[in-house]
Task: inverse folding
């Protein structure tokens, strides 16, 4: 077994067996490719069946000088997944990454926009521009449903269930969830479909896509980043923001107004409640209010 063939088989497994999205698949593949490049540069001849912990430790250590601890942890996690696959296929009996300690990354709190800042950003959209109304609908949907940017751009018209007040979202690993959508955002989408989208002829394969670019194809992640970046510059927001900032703001604002963590977890599509718990650290004032309201000795 050589590295190239094992990587191809691994890619096929991730795509077919695990149903991972293209972005996730590329990340996992990139982790293994980094290891392959390292072995070639260091002239280390060893196949995936025989590589041991010592070689991997040297690889992780050499990379630690070039990349952030978070990227190191991501790299190690990707390699761990690859060797788990080799065990699953009976190519190996052990995972050489198991005894390698994950680097300590700390916990960084995400930037969050206030409700006023969200309103200012959306209010700064030039509605006289041909894509103005579409962009406003995009940001309203992003914020009101707490979507990832990949979930937003892949939304289909057939995913809209307005009679039930929900939309269907395809999240990480092609996992499906249903997210509530408020009446105001529903109206923006209905207006977009009725008056804006009909002026763009969809290319073949994109007939069901909710948001289209000028060429009739699905929008890209970069396009959403660009829209938000330009609006932030326009109104002078100094925070480092991205489409994900809208998702963080969605969760934080719900929590501040009394929503429970489990409900937020379901709407965000987090597998583990611990991922959602980061929002508990964003507003100490809110936590103080919870103690004052619910503690028996308040």
Result:
């Amino acid at each position: 077994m050589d590295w190239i063939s094992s990587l191809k088989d691994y890619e096929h497994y991730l795509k077919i067996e695990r149903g991972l999205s293209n972005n996730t698949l590329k990340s996992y593949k990139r982790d293994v490719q980094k290891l392959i490049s390292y072995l070639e540069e260091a002239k280390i001849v060893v196949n995936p069946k025989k590589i041991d912990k010592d070689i991997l430790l040297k690889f992780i250590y050499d990379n630690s000088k070039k990349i952030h601890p978070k990227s190191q942890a991501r790299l190690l996690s990707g390699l761990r997944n690859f060797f788990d696959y080799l065990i699953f296929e009976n190519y190996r009996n052990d995972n050489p990454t198991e005894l390698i300690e994950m680097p300590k990354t700390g916990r960084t709190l995400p930037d969050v926009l206030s409700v006023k800042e969200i309103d200012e950003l959306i209010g700064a959209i030039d509605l006289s521009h041909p894509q103005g109304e579409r962009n406003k609908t995009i940001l309203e949907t992003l914020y009101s449903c707490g979507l990832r940017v990949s979930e937003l751009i892949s939304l289909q018209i057939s995913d809209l269930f307005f009679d039930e007040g929900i939309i269907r979202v395809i999240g990480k690993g092609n996992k499906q969830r249903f997210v509530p959508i408020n009446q105001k955002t529903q109206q923006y989408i209905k207006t977009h479909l009725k008056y804006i989208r009909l002026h763009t002829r969809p290319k073949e394969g994109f007939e069901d896509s909710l948001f289209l670019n000028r060429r009739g194809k699905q929008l890209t992640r970069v396009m959403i980043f660009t829209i938000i970046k330009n609006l932030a510059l326009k109104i002078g927001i100094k925070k480092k923001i991205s489409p994900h900032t809208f998702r963080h703001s969605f969760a934080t604002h719900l929590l501040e107004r009394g929503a429970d963590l489990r409900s937020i977890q379901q709407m965000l599509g987090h597998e583990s409640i611990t991922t959602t718990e980061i929002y508990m650290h964003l507003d100490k004032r809110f936590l103080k209010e919870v103690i004052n309201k619910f503690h028996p000795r308040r």
Summary: The chain has a mean pLDDT of 87. Residues 200 and 216 are 6 Å apart (CA to CA).
